[in-house]
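Risk register update: the risk of archive-format incompatibility is retired. Evidence:
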Amino acid sequence: MSTPTPAPTPARAREPFDRRLARAVQTVTGRSLGPHQSAIVRIGFSLTWLLFLLRELPHRHLLYGFESPWSWGMAERLIADNRAFTVLMWSDGRIWFEVVYGLAVLSAVLLMVGWRTRAVSVVFMVGVLSLQNRAVFVGDGGDNVLHLAAIYLVLARCSRVWSLDARREAREARAARAGEPPRRDLTGPLLWVVLGGFLMAATWFSDVSGEWWMPVLLWVLWLGNALWWLVRRYAPGEPRTLLDALANLAHNATLLVLMAEVCLIYATAGWYKIQGSRWQDGTALYYPLHLDYFTPWPALSELLAASGIMVMVLTYGTVIVQVAFPFTLFNRKVKNVLLVAMMLEHAGIALLLGLPFFSLAMISADAVFLPTVFLVALGARVTRVRDRLLRRTPDGTLPEQRRVDGEYGPRTLVG
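Archived output:
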């Protein structure tokens, strides 16, 4: 009787442990993973914050300013207790409030288009934390996600694609391949000098006894970027390789933390819902559909609430999707199906319950799980639409230029 031949062992399984460990370290330090996912997260959260600030622009003084029911004294006592960070508490003047609010709007716009993302992301974080911590009871749940995401974006390399920074780097790379001398960049150093001067003045004149960790973090970020600029300009060899590896490691760790946060949000929400009697009998959705505060479209809410089967299906479906999603990360196809279901669920919440910014914040967080193939195809389609609107041809020229300069004229549009 012949002995059965054992199945061949995969080559990777026969590989020594130290070599597999070295490959794993190279993966997390050699490149920034998920560039498209981090870019769509950057665009989503900055767009969410921008739309919120613009919608509340007429009511900004009532929400965060001197007309707020949450008065200056009440906010001061709370911040002294929880040690939250907000630059709005440095002065109770109206001009200071308008400056902070204006910078928050401007930083959201610049972060969305990816202009000087390293510096702008810090200003964006300060704006988000300052306004939200000034009045902690203003929000619908999405503000908590945005609060954390503003910190994450500072540590992520979220401008590798779909940004003005990426277009500028591509233009510099083309110029280098063509043998042209590099252009001197004055905007970046000037921006960091201005931010450094403001940070020095804020550290010197403000009382930071309660929120000491934030000035320390801001100084670490400022000094780290100053070191990056010096190394890139004067030591482009091994020192830059080391800093680039540290930046990749921080970026990849940030994406991992964001993914874990999304899974934790859905897992805790789903398991808490399971314990509720209204979720168990399938009637939980019926009650918010009859609350005036959560019915922007009363006729639509009444139509949906009139169907007991639809209420039960949506109630149970919400629980199933939230509980199951963290376990579907091990199967790409199932994960993508549930990801679409969750995004549709948040779109329904925005429409039926009148919570657009909560829904947009959660969709932005969910986008970290979107497949790269889909995001690349989406980016290509958006580019084609942009070129059609700008009347560009595939080679980057305008039709008028092709008629004047010939088929291969000297004038082309960069980017």
